[in-house]
Design goal:
There is one protein chain. By secondary structure, the protein is α/β, with parallel strands linked by helices. It folds into two domains: about 180 residues, Rossmann fold (3-Layer(aba) Sandwich); about 120 residues, Rossmann fold (3-Layer(aba) Sandwich). Helix content is about 45%, strand content about 10%. It has a four-stranded parallel β-sheet, sandwiched between helices. The chain has a four-stranded parallel β-sheet with strand order 6-5-7-8, sandwiched between helices. Helix 1 packs across helix 4 and helix 7 packs parallel to helix 11. The longest helix has 26 residues. The chain is globular and about 60 Å long. The N and C termini lie far apart (about 45 Å). The N terminus is likely disordered.
Length: about 300
């Protein structure tokens, strides 16, 4: 109910935002105005756009996209942007009403476009698993989509965007190689994953893990498990030989710690949908993945 109230307040501001004159597609200094929904999308956009774009990131660091509540100023940010980059695949459920009300639907570029989405058994998420960034090979597709959109909007700097994309894609390929070498330290029988929600699907599929279950029983961090569901998960953990439960910024840490205590396994922190502030352990996408992989390998090897 609270989220709906916030959305109504945002939409009430749309007429005044849309009527503001003099706001074109470029910011001070001639930079292309670009908006990204999440800090992870924003980091990849910044790698491709470089100094040629003026980037706004909609969700503050630490925000769970599944639970984001639009603020009044977000309508203005959407109206100002020339391009709006989102993860897509159903992640940003709040976004479409804002786009329609600000007349910004045509600005949207979903960076996950072209990725074959994994199914989510037992979920009503029609589009598939939205957590595409958990495999850096998917982020290569993101990078290509971002470079194409920036080049189309700003042909004068297309060569710069394409060159930046080539450099960043090389970094993503290096990351993939590093992940494979790290995962090789884990015995195959230990490559079993339990997380707070279904966030590790693409990682598991790419690097040879099996997802044994989740705390929420859902792709969403907002789902609330029943006592029966938690008991069933604990039984499966014991039977399968799972060594750790991986907990992100989106879940109730106490619940994960209780499952770990009940089953005698580790509760291990990872990041799932947001970077950290500058200077933190996951301040960029590359650092985000390295942190998570190190945590997973240390817990399971």
């Amino acid at each position: 109910m609270f989220r709906k109230t916030i959305l109504v307040l945002v939409l009430l501001l749309v007429p005044s935002v849309s009527s503001c004159g003099g706001r074109g597609p470029t910011a001070t200094g001639g930079k292309l105005r670009v908006l990204a929904t999440t800090s992870i999308v924003g980091d990849v956009v910044s790698q491709v756009g470089g100094d040629t774009i003026a980037l706004t990131i909609l969700m503050p660091v630490g925000t769970d996209p599944h639970d984001f509540q639009p603020r009044p100023q977000d309508a203005a940010a959407l109206a100002d942007a020339r391009i709006i980059f989102s993860n897509g695949a159903g992640l940003e459920g709040f976004l479409q009403p804002l786009l329609e009300s600000t007349g910004a639907t045509g600005k949207l570029v979903e960076v996950s476009a072209g990725i074959t989405l994994l199914a989510l058994p037992g979920s009503d998420q029609a589009t598939g698993d939205p957590h595409t960034w958990m495999d850096p090979n998917n982020v290569i597709t993101w990078t290509q989509n971002i470079a194409a959109a920036l080049s189309a909007a700003d042909p004068a700097h297309a060569a710069d965007y394409q060159a930046n994309a080539v450099v960043y894609i090389a970094s993503l390929r290096d990351l993939d190689t590093w992940i494979r070498s790290e995962v090789a330290q884990i015995p195959p029988q230990n490559r079993l994953l339990v997380a707070d929600h279904a966030v590790l699907g693409y990682f598991a599929a790419q690097y040879g893990f099996t997802q044994e279950g989740t705390i929420t029983g859902s792709f969403s961090s907002e789902a609330a498990p029943s006592a029966r569901e938690l008991a069933a998960l604990e039984d499966k953990i014991r039977q399968s030989g799972v060594r750790a439960v991986f907990v992100s910024e989106a879940v109730n840490q106490t619940l994960a710690d209780q499952i770990a205590a009940d089953t005698g396994i580790k509760s291990v922190w990872i990041y799932h949908a947001t970077l950290t502030a500058s200077g933190g352990p996951a301040a960029s996408y590359l650092e985000f993945m390295r942190y998570n992989v190190k945590a997973i390998v240390e817990a399971l090897r």
